[in-house]
Amino acid sequence: MQTIGNWITGVLAAALGLLGLFVSSRAKDDYVYGIGLIVTVACALFVMSLLKRVFDQAEHS
Question: Domain range for residue 20?
């Protein structure tokens, strides 16, 4: 059941990262542009940490 939770969380984080890129591309000022990029990078790091966790669990099994 945790596998499904990881998939759902990963998809939501990826969608939020894409939304951050969209917001950043349409920004009119530097503040919104920076926030969009920060959200995108944070989501990418979060998805990478999910992948690491899955591979570490598979290694211990």
Answer: 2-60
